[in-house]
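Prompt: Have a read of the protein record below and flag anything odd:
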Amino acid sequence: MLCCMPGVAFVPALLVSWSSAAFIISYVIAVLAGHVEPLVPYISDTGTKPPESGIFGFMINISALLGVITMYIRYLLVEKQNESSHFVRSSCNIFSLCIGLMGCIGMGIVATFQELSVPSVHDIGALVAFGSGVVYITLQSIISYKSCPQWNTYFVCHIRMAISVISCIAFIPMIVFASQISMTKIDWTPGEKDYTYHFVSAICEWTVAFGFIFFFLTFIRDFQ
């Protein structure tokens, strides 16, 4: 695997694979244990009750750490490229890194403070994680365009911007519909009160989460 990914390309590859596994494993265990319905639960719903809560918390915290490492390497990479090309202000690169680190802190809060135990803290962490994540990938898409054609292809830039736009569009209804839910629960069933709000918000949440994963997937070539 390392021979196929020279440089530090294994870092975003590990982030993508580990984060995907964290979501999928927690979901499968939660569904098999009967803790959530199979049809689009919130991501946090799949990591609320044991045994999946321990797995979810551990794996998401590792994902947050891998996110920090990936973002910092990306920052150093842009700084090094910028020495010869001067395509972006250093302050913009630093700002993007700070926003990304805020998102990783939010992930740590989500993993540590579970949804049913401390819902207010959990919700703040989720808002910070998703909000900062959307801003980070948007800024990185803009930086990518500025680095064309020397350091990036327009094809990759178009993919990154498309992912950013989709994530931004999904983020808004995710927050709006979630704010309309009047109760905190994880065992949602079709037809009950606020289920429609939950269903739409959950779909948007999964869309944004996997938008982040696909975005970091595009970093592999850069990190080589």
Q: What stands out?
A: The chain has a mean pLDDT of 94. The two ends are 13 Å apart (CA to CA).
